[in-house]
Amino acid sequence: xxxxxxxxxxGSPARARQMLRQVLADADRLDCLDAAELACTELVTNAVxxxxxVIEVTVEVAGAVRVCVRDGSxxxxxxxxxxxxxxxxxxxxxxxxxxxxxxxxxxxxxxxTVWFTVxxxxxxxxxxxxxxxxxxxxxxxxxxxxEPSTAARTVRLLGLPSALWLAAGEHHxxxxxxxxxxxxxxxxxxxxxxxxDRARFALxxxxxxxxxxxxxxxxRSADRGRGELPPAPEPIDVELQVPPGTGRDFTLMQDALDxxxxxxxxxxxxxxPGLPEIVAVRxxxxxxxxxxxxxxxxxxxxxxxxxxxxxxxxxxxTGRGAQQGPPVAPDPTGLGPFDPAxxxxxxxxxxxxxxxxxxxxxxxxxxxxxxWRVDDLVxxxxxxxxxxxxxxxxxxxxxxxxxxxxxxVLGEPLTVPVLRADGSEVSCRLLLERSEDRRARPVYLAWxxxxxxxxxx
Length: 457
Fold this sequence. Notes:
It is built from 13 helices and 12 strands. The chain is of the alpha+beta class. The N and C termini lie far apart (78 Å).
């Protein structure tokens, strides 16, 4: 058995692999190296990013190879929910797929040990793929261990839009992960990422607990018609226990995420910057914590008032993209590779939006049906066409797609209400498709046709 103590530093996973490799070589168990290295890397990386404490890695070879990763955080690991296109969130799924056994031991106020074993038998490629796809295994889940402090203050987040916040949480996870790695290379930027992650975890845990008490959306949408949008989750009231002395963490979380948003906007992070609603709900939640700790009464979330205002028109994306599937109704022009001029000249109803959710091209017929001029629509956010009651759900879905790759509505014909310029609504058939511009940036095409109205000639 051999152990190594490591700091919460981006270089620690490599040092853990080095020690593991040496132990397995000495024990003549290099047959286990690939699976053990990958699983160990995932657990040490999680500890670096989320525990922010000293990490102890222990390797023991006794028949099977057992690896233990201990940190000083009470928070138990959670398996993320990620689409196949996502770039993060697969750590525990990888551990489950590659190892014979895994679990948590010695969990308590002083921390916990996450462990796994490998080497009892070799798995075929098909078995590994089956294990990766399996959903029946028991995930590692849980809330912070130990009873909350009796001196903790209760903060209430009233009317929190759960779908919007859960999508925002996934965006925050991606931003803080990349910010931590960015700061490791840019020592001139000083942010308290430990406090920021502490606040993020506290908020995420409280919301997750509140959401678990709600009826599942799938159950409430069982009777919806084919092609109809599922009902959006209802707003919820969340109670958050804030331990003494940690109120400032929520201000530091805002500071860290504001910095990450600026870096993302500048292209210095892989994550895309958050949509205005994502930033607004985060600011509201953090400011509610700070305000209520100062004795101010809770203020209910009322949404973003002006989510569809005109903005400075961005450059039109140009160039080739992926071949498109069929529109809602046959288009005489044939869309083919993405070209804004083709959208602008289409005889059917179609709009193109960039990965910031801003309209970059709109067909004249669609603009007329909705009571707009084309030039007035281009440059606006696509939420200008979405009824206010559905905007949070749209932003949540779009953000989740950007953060995780989830594609629930792409390619699925739907019937949805679309907002006209005068504030009235028209029921439309909708088909969303994804293409790319010449820089390989996403472009989203929305084919929109009224259900009961004649299309303008």
